[in-house]
Design brief:
- The complex is a heterodimer.
- Chain A is built from 6 helices and 13 strands.
- Chain A is of the alpha/beta class.
- In chain A, strands 6, 7, 8, 9, 10, 11, 12 and 13 form an 8-stranded mixed β-sheet that branches. Chain A has a 5-stranded antiparallel β-sheet with strand order 1-2-3-5-4.
- Chain B is mostly helical.
- Helices cover 56% and strands 4% of the residues of chain B.
- Chain B has a 3-stranded antiparallel β-sheet with strand order 1-2-3.
- In chain B, a hairpin with a 2-residue loop joins strand 1 (5-9) and strand 2.
- The longest helix of chain B is centred in the middle third of the chain and has 35 residues, at 151-185.
- Classes of the chains: A alpha/beta, B mainly alpha.
- At the A-B interface, helix 3, strand 8 and helix 4 of A face helix 2 and helix 3 of B.
Chain lengths: 304, 301
């Protein structure tokens, strides 16, 4: 039985989908120098090297596997890739955009970045950047306007960071792809709630595609995204103070604390929950409702 | 666009004048200086600002455009919205030029990041652990071979023993280097736990700061293979090899691990605050008192 083969991409095919029984095997076309990036399988057909792209290793591959209908990197595109780590998915994105495209791969952590740098030297269209997605101004001089933004950063405020970077560099109509790790967004709300909040927030500036759930390949992850609207470039700073509701400070207790008592030890120790780091514009959340009241007691049922 | 803007893009800096004309601005120190500024987050050459800030990151000051378009007083960095518009007006940057700039910046930034004390300690700690594990594995394998060895195997074993000696010497050297590094970086923590364990904990936590911000209960379990569960969870992680653990009776080692973990967190905080190594004296006294109590069969609260 011959496998049914499907090619995506315009002039020259860059993604090869092959049906094998009830599963699909995907390959991406590689600029042609081995060894492989992370120990993946590869084959040579007609003088062209293809590397296998497995949904268990890459969230983008998993999204395609579970039926993501939105935009994908296409040949000739420029993509800004936030959270490249050692470059498993970034290498496949680079394959998809081909020699005419470019991938600006941003990673904050030096150890994985060293591995990224190792293979990126062999990939003519990858530009590695050691920087924090939280501070776009630190790498702004290295990134032009891009056709797509891929965000895979497991941070509590990953949606806000995606939007901040999209405002700076994503062209109108460009694609935003976001691998949403709900476990990073706090345990108080469930994955579905986090997805709903994130979608509602993004939908104000992005024409969202229908999101997909990445199970069983990646637990607690969703994939969402869409196309940037024209007004994204004029996004006001105030819109970037958003935090998921589960991380926002609770409203202060209705019963005022009795006067004349010392500081409340339990609440002074902090709640152990994540808060935006102070000191940077757009992250302090100083103008959120309830800001500055974080150290009030959360509950009225305190040990007397 | 109204006022003139300065844009920094890769190895070049551009001036967009009020009339919309785009000219390249020479930068003192040239490309090298821009690589340094991009990698270190340092000041842009010729500017008076402390760091490249703002969306397009070049701020006026002493930067002198080669043409008078508007004069330096009016030149400023762009806001995000202006930046988007202005970027489109720049002439295209050839891929090779852009790529070589990106790699130069990346290599410099990486070297800088890996030279941080936390990274040095973590690298050495992982290497030391790797060699130690290899030594145990190879030693065991040789002992197994040695039983009832006939002549050819015995000859091989003599060579292998020499090899093992070499590795042991290398291991001792790495250990010494690690001890010196971690004593300089975290003197209090290494006094409380011993250098090797202190280094492994820093490597596991990612940085001294992460370690110092941890609750003691989490530090105690760093490096544990099992997860804490509803039944009996693990009592030790890397802390099992802490200094003086072997002097405590077996059934009280969990208690000692608790104590020494809470002392270690305090020591890490002292180190983070930059206190000298003698600051841990009181912690060491508490540690040793606890050992005395546990050995005497007491210490139960």
């Amino acid at each position: 039985m011959t496998p049914s083969v499907r090619h995506r991409g315009d002039r020259e095919p860059r993604l090869w989908e092959e049906r094998r029984g009830d599963r699909t095997v995907r390959w991406t076309r590689t600029p042609g120098r081995l060894p492989a990036v992370y120990g993946e399988r590869w084959i040579e057909r007609g003088g062209v090297l293809w590397r296998q792209w497995e949904p268990t290793r890459s969230k983008l591959a998993a999204a395609i596997e579970v039926g993501w209908a939105g935009d994908l990197p296409t040949p000739g595109d420029r993509w800004l890739y936030l959270g490249a780590a050692s470059g498993t998915t970034a290498s496949h994105v680079a394959d998809l955009v081909g020699p005419a495209g470019r991938v600006y791969a941003v990673e904050r952590s030096p150890r994985p970045f060293r591995r990224l740098l190792g293979w990126a030297e062999r990939w003519p269209n990858v530009l590695p950047i050691l920087a924090d997605a939280r501070e776009p101004s630190r790498f702004a001089m290295q990134v032009p306007m891009v056709d797509g933004l891929y965000v895979d950063i497991a941070q509590p405020d990953q949606v806000r960071l995606a939007l901040e970077n999209a405002r700076a560099r994503l062209r109108p109509g460009g694609a935003l792809l976001l691998a949403l790790k709900t476990a990073s967004m706090g345990r108080e709300a469930g994955p579905a709630d986090h997805l709903a909040q994130a979608s509602e927030y993004l939908a104000r500036w992005i024409d969202l595609e229908e999101s997909v759930r990445l199970s069983p390949f990646h637990r607690g992850h969703y994939f969402l995204g869409g196309r940037a609207r024209e007004e994204l470039g004029r996004l006001p700073d105030e819109a970037l103070t958003w935090v998921p509701a589960s991380l926002a400070p609770r409203p202060p207790s209705r019963r005022p604390r009795p006067a004349g008592r010392g500081p409340d030890r339990r609440s002074d120790r902090g709640t152990g929950r994540w808060r935006p780091r102070p000191g940077r514009p757009g992250t302090t959340g100083a103008d959120r409702p309830g800001a500055g009241r974080e150290d009030r007691p959360r509950s009225t049922r305190r040990a007397g | 666009m109204v006022a003139p803007l300065l844009l920094w893009r890769g190895p070049r800096v551009w001036l967009i004048s009020a009339s919309g004309a785009v000219t390249e601005v020479p930068v003192p120190g040239g490309r090298e200086a821009l690589v340094r500024a991009a990698a270190d987050g340092g000041p842009v050459p010729g500017s008076r600002t402390a760091a490249p800030r703002g969306p397009l990151a070049v701020v006026p000051g002493a930067l002198r455009p080669n043409e008078g378009a508007g004069g330096t007083d009016l030149v400023r960095a762009a806001t995000p919205t202006e930046g988007r518009v202005a970027l489109e007006r720049l002439p295209p940057l050839p891929l090779e030029e852009e790529r070589s700039f990106a790699f130069d910046v990346a290599r410099r930034a990486l070297a800088r990041a890996l030279a941080q004390p936390d990274e040095r300690v973590a690298t050495l700690a992982r290497e030391e652990e790797r060699i130690e594990r290899a030594l145990v594995r190879e030693g065991n394998a040789q002992r197994e071979l040695a039983e009832g060895a006939e002549e050819t195997v015995a000859e091989y074993l003599r060579g292998a023993a020499r090899f093992l000696d070499e590795v042991e010497r290398h291991h001792a050297e790495v250990e010494g280097r690690l001890a010196r590094t971690v004593r300089a970086h975290a003197p209090n923590l290494s006094a409380v736990l011993g250098e090797k364990v202190a280094a492994r904990l820093i490597a596991l936590a990612g940085s001294l700061r992460a370690l110092a911000q941890m609750p003691a209960s989490r530090l105690q379990l760093l490096g544990a293979r099992r997860r804490p569960s509803h039944g009996r969870g693990p009592r030790f992680g890397a802390i099992y090899r802490a200094a003086r653990m072997d002097e405590v009776p077996l059934e009280r080692q969990g208690a000692y691990a608790r104590t020494v973990a809470s002392l270690a967190v305090i020591a890490a905080r002292l180190d983070l605050a930059g206190r000298p190594g003698e600051s841990a004296r009181e912690l060491l006294a508490r540690r040793d008192r606890r050992i005395r109590d546990l050995r005497a069969g007491g210490g139960r609260r």
